[in-house]
Design brief:
two-stranded antiparallel ribbon; 4% strand; flat; 3-stranded antiparallel β-sheet; mainly alpha; 5 strands
Length: 453
């Protein structure tokens, strides 16, 4: 394991920023620069240096004659930030931060159920969230403060059971919105707006410009060699001399090395298509949630019937149906954020190359690259996917019965077909072989049915 102290961390930031264009930064630094500066564009050059004086500022960043002072914090001990908590709380008050957010911060900071650190028991962050969810669930402003600590909702840590005290009880459909708002730290309207604003904004020209500059910076000799005209070689390789063979081999090696810096247009097309599919799925799911929570279900009734989601006359839905909707929404939001982040990071195009030619060459179809566009597949094979609405228990029973009926029909057909042939051959030496062939075909058909349902 490599340990980095604070000073090394400061220097690594300077190295990553100094004399770089904004477009060359990784996603995290890119976002940080846009948070610090206004009125900038991606072609501007950054200047950065360490502060060697004993001051709060660790590094300085300058863009377009505007300088920002930045203090970087890291570490594993309690000295990571040695300011008394009271000073920090006073600072929050001075900035006009609402009392609800400050209280929720203190609750998390002390982790003992108090805002002053005098509690008897100290809890884990997950336990704190579990214990005090009901206390803050009606205060949307605290959702945001909790989301600061927990960030993106990771599927493996998503625990929806805590929202359902009575597992047999039905819940008002508005509870769907409450859960989503608590998980994402955004109001329902902000959530939809955020989804639609998550776009692939990088252009082909920006990628080409970045790759060329990276090429010149990382491998200037190779760049210059490839700009020169190649020696003309005979089309008959048998006529090549040692020098010709060497020139061809060197040229091929140079092309392979340079491939890292070539732009493959389909890669950008792939990101656009992928994120469009996911964004459309999220909006369809949010339309369902909006219809249920507003009790306006007529426009979505066909979809509800298809997904087997039911709302009773009192506007209530089951715990299972709530979970079946929440999970794919969160999963698809994660997929969208990750893909957009990757697509807009110019360094992605140095290593990630995708073309239709390589797809077909490797025996893939284009559709296999992308997520399923429908909200649900009537198949138990794909029911493990978090980005789709899972089958209800009733749907699983219907699917199982359908499979059993299909198997019974095929089984009967095979019995008649092969019984007729085996009766003719029952006295011959081929009887055993014929039955083995029957068995083999029967197994193959079973596999075909289960793999395509």
């Amino acid at each position: 394991m490599i340990f980095i102290n604070g000073y090394e961390n400061e220097f690594s930031y300077v190295l990553a920023l100094n004399n770089k264009r904004i477009s060359e930064l990784n996603v995290l630094l890119y976002d940080m620069i846009h948070e610090l500066f206004t009125g900038i564009n991606d072609n501007m050059i950054i200047k950065s240096w360490e502060n060697h004086y004993r001051q709060k500022t660790d590094i300085l960043i300058k863009i377009n004659n505007v300088t920002k002072k930045v203090s970087k914090k890291m570490g594993s001990r309690n000295s990571v930030h040695s300011e008394p908590i009271n000073n920090f709380i006073n600072f929050l008050y001075q900035q006009g931060i609402p009392r609800e957010i400050i209280d929720s911060y203190l609750l998390y900071h002390y982790g003992d159920g108090t805002a002053n650190g005098r509690g008897e028991n100290r809890y884990t962050s997950e336990k704190i969230k579990e214990l005090y969810y009901m206390r803050y669930k009606n205060k949307k402003i605290c959702y945001t403060s909790f989301s600061i600590f927990y960030g993106r909702v990771y599927m493996e840590k998503l625990n929806l059971e805590k929202y359902f005290i009575d597992k047999n009880k039905k819940y008002d459909s508005t509870y769907l919105v409450e859960i989503l708002e608590e998980l994402t730290g955004k109001s329902f309207e902000e959530l939809r707006e955020n989804v639609n604003n998550k776009q692939v904004t990088v252009t082909a020209d920006e990628i080409k410009e970045y790759l060329e500059k990276k090429f010149i910076y990382e491998n200037p000799d190779l760049y210059e060699r490839l700009k020169k005209p190649r020696p003309t070689l005979s089309q008959n390789a048998s006529e090549w001399k040692d020098g010709d063979i060497k020139a061809f081999a060197n040229g091929l090696a140079d092309e392979l090395k340079a491939k890292r810096y070539y732009f493959e247009p389909y890669t950008l097309e792939y990101f656009h298509k992928y994120t469009e599919i996911v964004r459309n799925k999220i909006n369809k799911l949010l339309d369902i949630v909006n219809g249920l929570s507003s009790k306006e279900v007529k426009p979505i009734q066909k979809t509800l019937t298809k997904l087997d989601i039911k709302m009773d006359k009192n506007g209530k839905i089951s715990k299972d149906d709530i979970i079946r909707l929440v999970i794919p929404i969160i999963a698809n939001i994660n997929m969208l954020e990750e893909k957009v982040e990757k697509a807009n990071n110019l360094s992605t195009y140095l290593t990630f190359k995708e073309s239709k030619h390589s797809l077909y060459r490797d025996g893939w179809s284009e559709s296999e690259l992308y997520p399923i566009s429908s909200l649900q597949t009537q198949s138990d094979i794909n029911d493990w996917r978090d980005d789709n609405v899972k089958l209800s228990e009733n749907q699983k029973k219907i699917l199982k019965k359908s499979q059993e009926r299909s198997l019974k029909i095929i089984d009967g057909y095979l019995d008649k077909l092969w019984l007729k042939n085996t009766l003719k051959l029952e006295k011959s030496n081929f009887f055993i072989c014929h039955n083995l062939e029957y068995f083999r075909h029967k197994c193959a058909l079973y596999f075909l049915i289960f793999s395509t349902c």
